[in-house]
Amino acid sequence: MKLCAHLLWASAMLLSPAVQAAVLAIDYGAEFTKLSLVKPGVPFDVVLDRDSKRKISSVVGWKRDDRVFGSEGKMSVKADFQATRFPDTHFPYIKPLLASSSEPSLPLYPSPPTLVNDTLIFPHVSAPSHLSPAPSSPQEVWSPTALLAHQLAYFRGLASSLAGEVVKDVIVTAPAWWTQSQRRAYRDALELQGLTCMGMIGEGTAVGLNYAMTRSFPDYNATTGEGEREFHIIYDSGALSTTATVLAFYQTSVLPTPKSKTPINTTHIEVLATGWEQIGGVQLDLILQDMLVTDFAKKSGSDVSGDKKAMAKLAREANRVKHILSANQESNVAIESLFNDVDYKSRISRADLEAAFESSLTRFSSPITTALIKANLSIKDMTSVILFGGNTRVPLVQSSIRSVLGDKEDIIAQNVNSDEAAVLGAVFYGAGLSKQFKMKKLELHERSVYDFQAGVAGEVIFPAGTLLGERKTMVLPAVDQSVEVMQDGHPLFAIQFTDVAAALSNFSTPEPVINLTFRLDHRGHIAAANAVVVSNATASAESTGGMAGALKGLFGKKEKKEDGEATVEEGTEEDVDAKDVKKEVKKEKVAVKFREKALGLKAMTGEEKRVTMARLASIASFEAARTSREEARNMLEGYLYRLTGLLDPQTDNTALQEYSKPDEQDKLRVLKEETFEWLLENAEGADEKTLREKRTELEKLEAPIILRFQESRTRPKAVEDFQQAMFAARSFLVEAQSNVTIAKAAVAASTPESPAAPPKYTDEELTAVEVLMKELEEWMDEVMTQQVFLEEDKTATPVVMTKELDERGKKLQTTVLRLTAKKNPRAPKAKTASSSSSSTTSSSSTASTEAELPTGSAESDAPKHEEL
């Protein structure tokens, strides 16, 4: 029983919503997105889109009022309908435009965005009629953050369908070189969809984590420098950027307690440096597209660079040719009716592409050189160069990589999935953060790639290369002021102190200054953690070397929060008792209120978020209603076809005809035909309610027929179960009555020295069972007598229903089971011979004593021994 109880408890814990929360990892790329879901009991893997593809196109588009995603909205080989027929409502390559303050230079956007009040805004010609609030102008509708939010809604829908629940927690990858503004824009998009960002991990770091999941590394002590580390380069070349990340892998072994014999091994992944270039596969596509445009102009005399549909077809063909040239020396080009009904045919060689791209070839290798210089390492120190990203399959790119490796070309490794390694590493990271899984112990050490400055003089508080998770404190004069915070010289926000005098009114120590503490969190965001007024001596001591805690572990560890309360300083000149210390601490530190004001690139305001969320909600509501209406229409249409088949005289399934009366069949046929005619005329315009009502009308006519059919199938078994319950109750009653008779006889013949147990059942209990059985038997005889005459008529309404038989049988069964579950009564405790004789002797002596005492004597009022 204890084992069962533990199993039931464990099952309940597994079913708990808090424990079962799913985590979605999103590796959002400029051209493709990969998703992975982790949930207890479900092995994590890549989430497929609606077309069962593992890579999801990072695009959103509209076909009139319908929002489309993935390959349906992508300008691709197999699905160019959306991009070529509706180019103005096709929004690709949103990632590089997040938090951008300049209009894009690459010709990738059918409807390029324009800069409005320092924010890029995309037009939406013929915006959906259900969009609310409606845009004031079709030229200013969607920001890049809003378009990313559209895609996130699609991603969450895919994951929620797989998880069987609404997914709310996500872990996302981001380029290590993204600025704080870009990271903030990504988080704004998540917020617009109600998603919680559990963490943001660098793309190269995520690939390294995936690499480390199944491997072991040498021991290394980061404090003493003893041991060895493995150095690897994660080379990631995607659609629009190429990044090289130098990672150090090592292991630490620590005994959890002095008495432990088995050490705990922890794998560490440390980011040493990052180099990047804004170049990728798209630039190769554009070069090929230009080559095709020039070639077509030579052959046909027509310039198609101004025709959106023709350029979309050429872009699709350029992408196809690029993939062919990755494995072949030449590729044919063929596009039917490219422009003015003119077909285009040609041939492109790999040598032609390489020659056209020769001037930019070194940009693919420069990230490796830059990263090695920043890490103060060389190629000879590297164990491998791990390739990731679809563009690394291009021979031209691989040739550029080999050019900087010299005689170490053999360290190029393709030992991770070049498409999915990042998202699989991210989901592993998310699983560790969720605390729901027992994971391999891993710790990540990521670094900032930019300097963070603060103050008028631009003091560097977090230099480039600072481990994420650190805190630093700077000392300021105790006056109202504004402190500007910058990232690599670009303003982020200002810390404004406006009520320092209020804090000083509660401060008694001389030489007050403000200790302003900054936190660089694990997502790469810098923020003010707290500000306190302290004495100048205390401030100097605390600000030296920064404040507590460099990097905390990422799996299962959190940053230590500061709440502005003071702490006792060490090294005081004289000893004081604890009460005096407490009082002194309260006087030494006083919290100062401040607020942050955004500078530089403008983040989404509260009003912009409200409007965008309202528009997203209106689209989601429209799509939900449309899906529900289509479901109702399909169900009605399917129901009508099913009825047509069942009413067909030639059908093999004759159940409906056998159990229905002729007039019922006629009514069904008539209503079915009327509904068919109505549906043909109103299928597109009918609302969901009307569609469901039409089906309900048909179901009401069919319901009596279904009832007869179902009863004919289930009633025989119900009758058999009822009779078995009656037989079991009768057997119980006979045996119970016999046991009661025997028990009563035993009680009558018992003595105090040998008592007998009373009967287990009372006469009232057995009488109640007998009365109930008699009532049920009479009822059964009556209804079955009537039902027998109807067995030959399948169209007759049953007299007795399966449900009623089950209810009465269960009532009898429950009554009997309750009695059988009673515990057997115990016999009274037997009296021994010694206790009986002592009791007799005691009463005799008491009687003689009472006889000797004169009536009315003084001792007659005294308490007797028995009373005492």
From TrEMBL:
Biased composition regions of type Acidic residues, renumbered to the chain: 565-577
Location of the protein in the cell: Endoplasmic reticulum lumen
InterPro entries per UniProt: ATPase_NBD (IPR043129), Heat_shock_70_CS (IPR018181), HSP70_C_sf (IPR029048), Hsp_70_fam (IPR013126)
Bias (Low complexity): 832-849
Basic residues: compositionally biased ranges: 820-829
GO cellular component: a single term: endoplasmic reticulum chaperone complex
Keyword entries, A-Z: ATP-binding, Chaperone, Nucleotide-binding, Signal
Database matches in Gene3D superfamilies: 1.20.1270.10, 3.30.30.30, 3.30.420.40, Actin, Chain A, domain 4 (3.90.640.10)
Residues covered by region (Disordered): 559-578, 818-868
Protein name, per record: Hsp70 protein-domain-containing protein
Entry annotated with the keyword Protein transport: no
PANTHER family membership: HSC70CB, ISOFORM G-RELATED (PTHR45639), HYPOXIA UP-REGULATED PROTEIN 1 (PTHR45639:SF3)
PROSITE patterns attached to this UniProt entry: HSP70_3
Pfam family of the protein (one): HSP70
Residues in the signal sequence: 1-21
Any one GO MF annotation of this record: ATP binding
Predominant localisation class: endoplasmic reticulum
Superkingdom of source: Eukaryota
Entry's Gene Ontology BP terms: endoplasmic reticulum unfolded protein response
Keyword Chaperone set for record: yes
